[in-house]
Amino acid sequence: MDVVRSIQALNEQVKAYKQQGKAIGFVPTMGFLHDGHQRLMKKAREQNDIVIVSIFVNPLQFGPNEDYDRYPRDEERDKKVAESENVNLLFLPTVEDMYPNDSSINLQVVSRNEVLCGKRRPGHFDGVVTVLTKLFHLTQPTRCYFGLKDAQQVAVVDSLIHDFNFPIEIVPVSTVREADGLAKSSRNVYLSEQERAEAPSLYQSLEAGRKLVIDGERNPVTIVKGVERFIQSHTHGKIDYVELLSYPDLKPVDYIDGQVILAIAVFFEHARLIDNVIFQREGSKTDVTLGG
Ligand code: AMP
Question: Which residue of 150, 168, 190, 277 sits with most ligand 1 atoms within 8 Å of its CB, as the best mutation to test the pocket?
Fold first, then answer.
């Protein structure tokens, strides 16, 4: 595995891959790698000649009171994990290299952003699309891999690729969970013992909501209320949001009549956890469809 830190060295490698006609699979991450990231790498390995993984804790996507400074980092361990997944190139840029000068251009997400995390984390997805635009130009992937754990991110990146005509296929990957249902996340290390014990209730609340749909409920308000009650009665967490929207357009719906997302964000003392389920009108989980 090549470990590359400079943009110049990356450019040279990518040029060589392209000259050899290689298909490149790209997995952007913020590191502290876990099984969720590994699922993305495995998928990229299956579908491409070359796998590039980036690790970059992107300051632009963190708000002033968020966890940029304390975001968990472990470069040595991450290198071993990437190596074990047969990654060809690990890109570890510095903040100074990615954002060298005061920049003259801001990217702004104007759709699929006014709900869920986009609403609660102003500027977050602007930072995400800015770094990804740079990383897509640098890595020139054939396919890129994103986890549905961050389903709004998948929807926004789907728009980015479509709107800016990136010749890249986006591959959404289903959420990897702990045995008790908690979605794997680098931020799970922030949880206290008691919070960790309560955290599986988040996924259970989503599945309880989906069960209402399977049993015939089609009114989003009833489902959202059911999920809120479940979280309140099973955890000490503070609900940031519970929303049910069309997916991937992320529009409010009065009636469940197509692919929808039921998504939650809950504050624990030192961690804000998110999770979601995406399902069809009768509650079944099938392959998630995107489409620009
Ligand atoms: P992050 O390092 O948190 O920015 O995540 C990098 C990529 O891994 C994103 O596409 C995430 O959606 C994805 N990811 C994170 N956690 C999981 C998970 N539990 N299952 C599947 N994908 C995940």
Answer: 150
